Amino acid sequence: MHTISDDLRLDHRAALPAEIALLRAKYPVPQWPAHTNYGELAAFWLQVHDALRAEGAALARVSEDFREGRTDIAAFERAFAPRLRAYLQHLEGHHRIEDAHYFPRFRNLDKRLIYGFDLLENDHEIIHEQLLSVVDSARSLLQAFAVGDDALRYGVDTYAERADRLLVLVKQHLADEEEIVIPSILEYGELALR
Ligand SMILES: [Fe+2]
Ligand SMILES: [Fe+2]
Q: By 3-state DSSP, what share of the chain in percent is helix, strand and coil, each rounded to 5?
């Protein structure tokens, strides 16, 4: 695995440079669905990403609604842990399949793709670190529900701050991954990835 240069790390970059998103210019997004190599796998990949975006937005809404007084403590306490658990399980499950199954196949297709997939795998590690920090703050928040007042306010703020940071990282990762994965599928076809 390549070491990822500092400016290209998920927590530092704003976009992928053209030398990493090698095939991005060759396959502009509006042309993806009409391409002959756009099949079930590409469509499914994008569907999973859209689902993660929607679940992430719903998760953010739960703490936002409570912090802005639109829901009470009881509703927040009921909603936040199950929603967080479901989101994190989906996210980690998706990353596991990518790391174990798909990324190695993409690397075998074309040597020039290796650095990009190493970078995406490094993104998963950065996301995982942030996820652990979110889980940690979620545990403290669950304890703070019993204490109330200041402890609860502090618990919610810390949790929301860390969860928001996680969602920002995931959002960037999903967008960048699509710019690498979908053009690679269009270039080489889905059969090569089975
Ligand atoms: Fe990923
Ligand atoms: Fe993904």
A: 80, 0, 20
Per-residue pLDDT reduced to its tens digit, 64-98: 999 999 999 999 999 999 999 999 999 999 999 99
First to last CA, the chain: 22
Residue 7 CA, ligand 1 centroid: distance in Å: 19
CATH 1.20.120 for domain 26-193, yes or no, is yes
Nearest to 8 by CA among 166, 18, 56, 95: 18
Q: Return the DSSP state at 20.
A: T
Q: How far is the CA of 121 from the centre of ligand 2 (A)?
A: 10
pLDDT tens-digit profile of 154-165?
A: 999 999 999 999
Which residue reads 């998963």 in tokens?
124
